[in-house]
Amino acid sequence: MSMASRPVIFPVLVMFLLVVLIIVFSGDVSPVNHLTVINGADTAWMLTSSALVLVMTPGLAFFYGGMVNKKNVISTMLQSFICMVVITVLWVIVGFSMVFGDSVIGVFGNPATFFMMNGVVEGAPWRMAPTIPFILFAFYQLKFAIIAPALITGAFAERIRFKSYIVFIVLFSLFIYCPIAHATWHPDGILARFGVLDFAGGTVVHMSAGWAALASAIYLKSRNNQVHKPARITYVILGTGLLWFGWFGFNAGSAFGANNIAATALATTMTASAAAAFSWIIFDAMRGRLPSAMGSCIGAVVGLVAITPAAGFISIPHALAVGIISSIISNIMVEWRTRTSVDDTLDVFPCHGVGGLAGMLLTGVFANKNINPAIADNGLIFGETKLFFIQLVAMLAVSVFCIIASFILLKVTDLITPLRVNDSEEKEGLDLSQHGETL
User: Which tens digit of pLDDT belongs to each residue from 38-64?
Assistant: First the structure.
């Protein structure tokens, strides 16, 4: 065998073996139970929502890609895009089962329950989404699993090796995202039984990604050159528009049907984001700054993050308050971060992490049983304290878990394959050094 043929034959053999394994472990599909009551309107809305949420990841690619230096645009955008590829495969094989499989002590799902999507196509609807096909529920939830690791990328932009990044997002998904999602969204999950409210992922998506982002920024240390010149502000505006558009599927879709709760979530999502963007501009102006496109976009995204856990639980006036409060807090945190040695390149933690934290607590303040009768307790503003303290305790517990687990996974990844590019690769830019491509 010639040396020239080895690089071709070896990967072909590996891929062939993978296909054989897939065939061996895939069972026959039983007939679908046609007696199951599936609602056409609910199914149509959830199909639409699934597409909307997927659009958020390319939107995030533009949002982040426009903010970095020109020599790192392709790499940054690809880090978001590749999540659609890697996490989909992981979700189909074992991820969905680890979130929604039979509960193991309320912390994670049994990987064998829906291994390789076994029993999903023909399965009865999920108990929390009884009017849509189980397969649709599974692939709607996939879109949340995709965007969570993509959010982290802004924290270590311009200095991470692409191959190492792939290893890290797999570990993050399996050992951070899946356990938190199971604990929060599975009826037998430990946080769900505790009474934690997270309508669409403030805890599951934004807090997990936010704390992982902070850990990543600390672990990878600062860039050698921190001069920040955004490549394309127009990309940021486009990305914000796509994120805002997709977020209606993210939040309103989490009602799992075409119903009043979905409409409420859509309304609160629009309201909070607009209030946050406007508040960001005003707050900047009060401190003598110009009303920037970047600030408007960041403010809008912060509002979307903060309303996510509360979207289907609060009124529209309270959504205004969520947008204003979260915007001001995140704005202050961005300013504070710049005075530290933490090089969170695109301020993922001050915006997504802190936005998720604020949203989780504000859910405990504004949640209203008249808006959503499925919740057990009203929020703090209605004179009840139980829900607020549940949210507070869960917020602290999830935060501690995420930051510790993130540092461990970063170290494990670094042992497997070095996380950071070398100085010459960083100076050259990741587009060229990691992908051999340029704008």
Answer: 999 999 999 999 999 999 999 999 999
- Band of residue 33 on the pLDDT scale cut at 50, 70, 90: low
**Selection from 430, 397, 86, 359 nearest residue 197 by Cα:** 359
Q: Which of 128, 85, 136, 135 is nearest to 114 (CA)?
A: 135
Is the separation of the CB atoms in 18 and 11 below 8 Å? no
In this structure, are residues 216 and 155 in contact, taking their beta carbons and an 8 Å threshold? Answer: yes
Contact 175, 149 (CB under 8 A): no
Q: What angle do CA 301, 307, 313 make, to 5 degrees?
A: 165
State how far the alpha carbon of 58 is from the alpha carbons of 161, 365, 427, in Å: 21, 33, 26
Residues 326, 362: contact at Cβ < 8 Å? Answer: yes
Residue 217: both structure tokens together? 């920024």
How confident is the model over 375-386, as a mean pLDDT? 96
* Residue pLDDT, tens place only, 215-238: 999 999 999 987 778 999 999 999
On whether the 42-425 domain is CATH 1.10.3430.10, my answer is: yes
Going 46 to 51 to 57 to 59, the CA torsion angle's sign is: negative
Q: What confidence score (pLDDT) does residue 13 get?
A: 74
Strand partners, 160: 420
DSSP string, 52-112: HHHHHHHHHHHHHHTTS-GGGHHHHHHHHHHHHHHHHHHIIIIIHHHHHSSEETTTEE-TT
Closest Cα to residue 99, out of 38, 12, 219, 189? 189
Q: Are 215 and 407 in contact (CB under 8 A)?
A: yes
Structural contact between residues 79 and 434, judged by C-beta atoms closer than 8 angstroms: no
What is the length of the chain? 439
The answer to whether 250 and 57 are in contact (CB under 8 A) is no
Q: How far is CA 318 from CA 41, 65, 223, 310, 387, in A?
A: 29, 33, 40, 10, 16
pLDDT in tens, 255-288: 999 999 999 999 999 999 999 999 999 999 999 9
At residue 420, φ and ψ (nearest 5 deg) are -100, 140
pLDDT at site 4: 46
Q: What is the pLDDT of residues 91-117, one digit of tens each?
A: 999 999 999 999 999 999 999 999 999
Domain boundaries, the chain: 42-425
Beta bridge partners of 314: none
Mean residue pLDDT of the chain comes to 93
Q: Quick one: DSSP state of residue 382? A: G
**β pairing state of 108-109 and 103-104:** antiparallel
